[in-house]
Amino acid sequence: MTDWRDNWPLKLSGAAVLLALVVVMLGGWTRINDAGLGCPDWPGCYGHIVLPGSEEALERAQTLYPDQPLLAHKGWIEMVHRYVAGTLGLLVMTLSVAGWRRRKLDGYPTFLSIALLGLVVVQALFGMWTVTLKLLPVVVTLHLLGGLLILSGLTLLRFRLRRFYRSSGADITPEREGRNWVLAALIVVFLQIALGGWTSANYAGWACTDWLKCETADAPSLDFAGGFALTLETGPNYQGGHLPREGRAAIQMTHRAGAMLVLLVVMAMIWRLAAAGWSKGPLLTVAALLCGQIALGVANIVYAVPIPLAMAHHGGAVLLLLSLVWLYQRDAVIEKESCYACAQSC
Question: Chain-centre distance of CA 331, in angstroms?
Fold first, then answer.
């Protein structure tokens, strides 16, 4: 039987969280650089596991997919994303095996460890469908959300493993006052990121040029039914988007309304938790991330979504989500030195 004092899963979970963050950022980089179809096949790239390097090999690869222009730099962006995601999958598999072997240990997060592996398998399928269905917006959006769920799940696993190795299972405290506010903020932020993914998948970031309203003059009518139609035809190449401007403008304005809702809910959460005596440092961190994210959103509108600002906005959303996961977990348990900690200090 594996000795529960061997805490390598805790260390591995930390590496997995960092790698998952890299994967999510690489996914954003791939999408923002329009490299989602940099490789028109899956899991290889133009029939190769590694994109060919020589001109002759590239020409042969192009003949396999004559309708998809081969741009080597976009192919490499896509393949690096896949390689790193595959490495993350191996780490999650290792953590799930560790969870299964420790399933009889009281307090070990076995279910979460194994559930994450199932989520990774589903995420791999969405990665394949993103390519084979040629950037179908609903698949692209769900692929983004799957990555965020894996990152959030690994962050929770890290917290629970840390709790398992440093605390006894009986040290759970009653729920902190106001903790449900954090959960509500988490849900609203996650839904707003889903809206952001839908905006990006439909190339709607450029639909409106005015930061306060869609246009200063001759504003397009907003087609919400068309903009949020989930049953789109499979088969066409959705790179560049197919929606008319009215549909894209409806998506863009809905995303902005969502940002206002996030601002209200998160600020109300901060006010409520501060009144309940929560530490000011974490609350100020969340407030700073929220304000920075809104400023980046306005800057993207004003400057027509340049790649650096788009990546910063993507990263800001991820950090805001993780900060709320951290806030939700940090006061759930009074950590008490366990026998294991005593043994380590002796």
Answer: 24
Please tell me whether residue 172 adopts helix, strand or coil conformation.
Answer: strand
b/e sequence 297-333, b meaning 16+ C-beta within 10 Å = bebbbeeebeeebbbbbbbbbbbbbbbbbebbbebeb
CA separation, residue 72 to residues 26, 130, 307 (Å): 17, 19, 19
Q: Which residues pair with 45 in a beta bridge?
A: 48
Residues 6+ apart with CB under 8 A from 344: none
Q: What are phi and psi of 79, to 5 degrees?
A: -70, -40
Annotated active-site residue 177? The verdict is: no
pTM higher than 0.85: yes
Q: Of the residues 55, 56, 59, 78, which is catalytic?
A: 78
Contact between residue 78 and residue 30 where contact means Cβ atoms under 8 Å apart:
yes
Q: What is the pLDDT of residues 277-317, one digit of tens each?
A: 898 999 999 999 999 999 999 999 999 899 999 999 999 99
Separation of alpha carbons 47 and 64, rounded Å: 8
CA distance 238 to 113: 35
